[in-house]
């Protein structure tokens, strides 16, 4: 018998019966025009044949082979998608890659701002006259998270009104102004205001970029392209740590680092002017001809008719923008619960605690430079993200997520064994280093990239921005709490006990993913949405 939690989570139906076209996705709708009914009637019979394949998503077995064959033969190979006809390397992703790469520069900026305070915080404190005050030093770092919290909350309204492309450009304003204020700060208040503005911009971008990639990427390459978020973040961290090395000898170098943060913001604002808008958003606001042109340009001519039919069958059923209250009703509440749960579990599996403590771990083996230690961690993180990009559309999201958390749990217990049992110092330090790097690597394989990829895939077109905004709001709250209480817990209970807790949470998350996560590999956003909406009782038209 399912638990109350299980009954609330996303579970696909054991069987599907033909229903009237255009399943209802919200609490109320006006009568659909005849053209909508016609579009839905053309699409739903074909979709009904595919729904039984989605049942494999909630089981331990992989999706049936024909589903994968269908996705790989999606018209994105020779000619249509920039491929070479299947005789060589599959290059169907090249058409959309420049657009996705431009948007993922926002994640590079996110990573840059994560690492930019790692080295020069003491110099900043000395120059702005709050040296020796750990609370104020922590506030300069954590005010960034507070801004991101508000940015995540406000992102949905911007995306729904202006679309992904314009919102990314608008969001560059606080990112650039915030970086300039921080670089020119003559007081603590100016530094805090600059960091807060940057946080707002980052909060919007972390919600927006996964949505944009999921909506503009062809189904076949959506997972691979989605990992660019994680890769961009890793590269940003590495860039800030590398650029911060001179700060060890130059007390004013922090200003150069903060000025440099303006450059990606300018490049994003200019680059997005030439990027494509999301075809799903264009269809949602009634610009079907523009959506059709973008699909033909990015996905290939053979994809236009089928994709437009699917998008119309879903989008035209909704005659108004979604509201936050819809996250309280089925089926949107299930996706919101899964999104919030994944980010909650991700943060309490200890990623930020491990990153914070990694410099001390490396110091025990003679690496005294915190910047160098963080650089090793960043390179390991990048390596894991690169491997994930190759596996995401082959192994699927669910397998990577489960394997990632199992690897993180093993790494935590390895570190606990090294520090809690009477071992030779060299062996103990080696286990700690191995466990730390293994944890970072396995996190980057699944827990990091999959969460941001999976949530927009499971969300409906109507509520996608709000589900993502809610999920990332949970992320920032948990991020703040872990950072606030981690050291206090370590001082009270010891590293071994805290890391054991992280390992247990990782195991629980793997179990959660095994039982409740739906596999989305090789399925269009519309196919996923239409199948999931059929489980909503009493919502038929």
Number of separate strands: 0
Order of helices and strands: HHHHHHHHHHHHHHHHHHHHHHH
Low-confidence stretches: 1-87, 535-541
Counting helices, strands and paired strands, the structural category is mainly alpha
Beta-strand percentage range: under 5%
Number of helices, where a helix is a run of at least 4 consecutive DSSP H or I residues: 23
* 3D shape: globular
Radius of gyration: 23 Å
- For the termini, the CA-CA separation is 30 Å
Mean pLDDT: 81
Which percent range fits the helix content? over 70%
For the biggest sheet, the summary is: none
Protein name: Major facilitator superfamily (MFS) profile domain-containing protein
Domain Major facilitator superfamily (MFS) profile: 99-521
Keywords: Membrane, Transmembrane, Transmembrane helix, Transport
Region (Disordered): 59-82
């Amino acid at each position: 018998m399912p638990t109350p939690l299980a009954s609330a989570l996303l579970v696909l139906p054991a069987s599907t019966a033909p229903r009237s076209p255009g399943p209802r996705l919200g609490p109320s709708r006006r009568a659909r025009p005849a053209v909508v009914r016609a579009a839905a009637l053309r699409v739903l019979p074909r979709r009904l044949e595919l729904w039984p394949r989605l049942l494999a998503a909630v089981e331990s077995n992989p999706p049936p082979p024909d589903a994968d064959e269908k996705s790989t033969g999606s018209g994105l190979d020779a000619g249509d998608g920039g491929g070479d006809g299947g005789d060589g390397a599959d290059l169907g992703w090249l058409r959309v890659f420049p657009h996705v790469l431009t948007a993922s520069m926002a994640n590079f900026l996110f990573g840059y701002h994560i690492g930019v305070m790692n080295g020069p915080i003491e110099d900043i404190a000395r120059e702005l006259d709050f040296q020796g005050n750990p609370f104020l030093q922590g506030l300069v770092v954590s005010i960034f998270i507070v801004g991101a919290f508000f940015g995540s909350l406000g992102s949905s309204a911007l995306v729904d009104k202006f679309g992904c492309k314009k919102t990314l450009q608008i969001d560059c304003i606080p990112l650039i102004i915030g970086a300039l204020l921080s670089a020119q700060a003559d007081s603590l208040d100016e530094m805090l205001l600059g960091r807060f503005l940057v946080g707002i911009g980052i909060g919007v971008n972390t919600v927006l970029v996964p949505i944009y990639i999921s909506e503009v990427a062809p189904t076949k390459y959506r997972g691979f392209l989605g990992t660019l978020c994680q890769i961009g973040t890793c590269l940003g961290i590495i860039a800030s740590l590398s650029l911060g090395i001179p700060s060890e000898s130059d007390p004013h170098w922090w200003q150069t680092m903060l000025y440099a943060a303006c450059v990606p913001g300018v490049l994003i604002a200019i680059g997005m002017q030439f990027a494509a808008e999301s075809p799903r958003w264009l269809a949602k606001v009634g610009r079907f001809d523009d959506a059709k042109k973008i699909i033909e340009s990015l996905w290939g001519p053979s994809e236009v008719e089928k994709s437009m039919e699917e998008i119309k069958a879903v989008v035209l059923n909704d005659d108004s923008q979604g509201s936050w209250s819809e996250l309280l009703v089925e089926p949107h509440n299930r996706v919101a619960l899964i999104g919030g749960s994944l980010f909650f579990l991700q943060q309490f599996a200890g990623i930020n605690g491990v990153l914070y403590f990694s410099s001390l771990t490396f110091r025990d083996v003679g690496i005294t430079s915190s910047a160098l230690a963080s650089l090793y961690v960043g390179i390991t993180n990048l390596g894991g993200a690169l491997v994930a990009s190759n596996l995401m559309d082959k192994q699927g999201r669910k397998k990577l997520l489960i394997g990632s958390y199992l690897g993180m749990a093993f790494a935590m217990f390895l570190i606990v064994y090294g520090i809690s049992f009477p071992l030779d110092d060299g062996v103990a330090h080696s286990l700690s280093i191995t466990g730390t790097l293994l944890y970072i690597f396995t996190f980057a394989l699944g827990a990091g990239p999959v969460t941001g990829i999976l949530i927009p895939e499971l969300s409906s077109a109507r509520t996608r921005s709000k589900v993502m905004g809610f999920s990332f709001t949970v992320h920032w709250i948990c991020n703040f709490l872990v950072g606030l209480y981690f050291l206090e817990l370590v001082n009270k209970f010891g590293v071994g006990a805290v890391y054991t807790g992280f390992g247990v949470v990782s195991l629980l998350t793997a179990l959660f993913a095994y039982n409740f996560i739906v596999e989305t590999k090789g399925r269009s956003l519309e196919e996923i949405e239409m199948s999931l909406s059929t489980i909503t009782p009493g919502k038929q038209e």
